[in-house]
Design goal:
- By secondary structure, this protein is of the alpha+beta class.
- The chain has 2 domains: 97 residues, no CATH class; 182 residues, RNA polymerase II/Efflux pump adaptor protein, barrel-sandwich hybrid domain (OB fold (Dihydrolipoamide Acetyltransferase, E2P), Beta Barrel).
- It is built from 12 helices and 11 strands.
- Strands 3-4-5-11-10-7 form a 6-stranded antiparallel beta sheet.
- Strand 8 and strand 9 form a beta hairpin.
- Helix 2 packs across helix 5.
Amino acid sequence: MAGTTTERPPFCIWMEAGVIDYKICNRDFDCANCEFDRAMTEAARRNLTLQRAKSGVPIPRGSLISWQERVRPQERPGRGRRSAADRRAGAVPPADSYERLLAEQTEILFTPEPPRTTEVFGFQVPVNSYLHKGHTWVQLEIGGRVRIGLDDFSQKVLGPPDEMRLPELGQAWRHNTVGLELIRGSNQAAVLAPVDGIVEVVNPRVRQTPGLAHDDPYGEGWLVVVSPTNLKPDLEQLLYGRRNVAWIENEAHKLLGMLSAAAGVTLPSGGAIIDDVYGHFPELGWQRLVREFLHTA
């Protein structure tokens, strides 16, 4: 009927880029938790690795775009994307759309390069990432994003989580307000957001295997990628470099004082604090540990 419009189906971003012929998204563009997206990303990673090995030249990355930008109306079919007739005729997609999409997926979802660390009482302390006093780390990334996780200190104190309650895509974060939760048994620990921003990616591996946050906190155990909205002022409130080391030294001394008072534990000179402090010394109290070190209980 003249004057009426039909709402366009939510086409998958891989279809939008001209990589596949047809697929409807039934996950509200929650790509980080989509099995199909994961499989396509893994295939992309293998292909990129093979191409790099053959050529010795990195694949051009182009401009990174946010998850919201992926579904902007001007990016949709009939506005820059190949039509079905074009695909049947063998027309090629826009010059860099496929490579750009692959680059974006691999850039964000791949395990980040671990930061440089130094050891303090057995805790690995990053010296080229920012630290928040609620024991999250912040790493600046290409495209203006930041990647965020929990530091080694918090994981060795609280021990391996049974669940990580991570934020939803598109959720707004506010600096120094609760951004996520760590669950161990019946215990919960709220974790403060280190920056203002919009959550763009949630690590699907940690959703499936929460222990990664404990076992590899600076690698596969990263938690979220955020598009910051107040980055410079937020970074000025975080720690960096030598200040990270000095702060963790103070936190370790505080923990040693608690261990000595509650459990009579002392550390020999040059010794390292045991992993899973709470698991070995529950008399310290979960809520007390969370209050003292995460500042949320």
